[in-house]
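Minimal example, chain plus F9T.
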Amino acid sequence: MNLEGKTYVIMGVANKRSLAWGAAQALDKAGAKIVFTSLSERFSKEIEKLASELEGDHDIIVECDVSKDEDVERAFKEINEKTGGFDGVLHAIAFANKEELKGGYSETSRDGFKLALDISAYSLAVVTKEAKKYMNENGSVVTLTYLGAERAMPNYNVMGVAKAALEASVRYLAFELGEEGMRVNAVSAGPIRTLSSSAVGEFKTILKEIEERAPLRRNVDQVEVGNAVAFLLSDFASGITGEVLHVDSGYSIMA
Ligand SMILES: CCCCCCc1ccc(Oc2ccc(Oc3cccc(O)n3)cc2)c(O)c1
């Protein structure tokens, strides 16, 4: 897949284990230019280090806190000024209080619920609203989700509810923006050990279950997920919108 001449915004690289970093590697290999957004100076430093390992020269890192509307507006204005426009966005951002990602969902606090839905689901809508001001023709937005949006998975709790809202948001954004030629999709990734997965109770149990029972009898990795993200961002997926593409060794098809 040749993505030379294309520019993509990647939101949500924390470190080399991030799924968003897998997408960065895939896009870089295809020759695309990447712009990173970062929550803070600390993450920017880490991204700078990682980006220097890539083939391309991806030197634009813009801070963006998706919990603040005016910050998302400022960030995409800045990205446009520095790039002259871009072809797509990977939204790889989510958060829930870790004490609510174990035990019973009925214990979820009102504030914890609001926070998880705000950062993990609402942020896709405001990111899409600001990005579309500057996105080139036939632009594409991709976000990351998990099977816990569709089925009750142990410990995933309020993040599962947030991801269900995220997947519905993908459909409503696709419905609205299709006539402008913009596509919106999600990759539903199998469990992968990352900074975030450590916040989910008994995470290791599901890794073992997949190795033993999933059709491919193995777990997936960041680059496999990244390849699917790059595909959905690219024109190879020009006829696909409002879709949730599972990259999970086939686990989600099983009873
Ligand atoms: C039975 C469920 C086990 C598989 C969970 C797979 C998974 C792993 C990581 C995921 O992304 C998260 C998870 C928690 C999360 O909230 C966090 C992350 C770090 C610290 C903290 O306090 N909360 C943010 C993103 C995610 O959405 C899904």
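The helical segments are 19-29, 41-51, 69-83, 110-131, 157-177, 203-213, 222-233. The radius of gyration is 17 Å.
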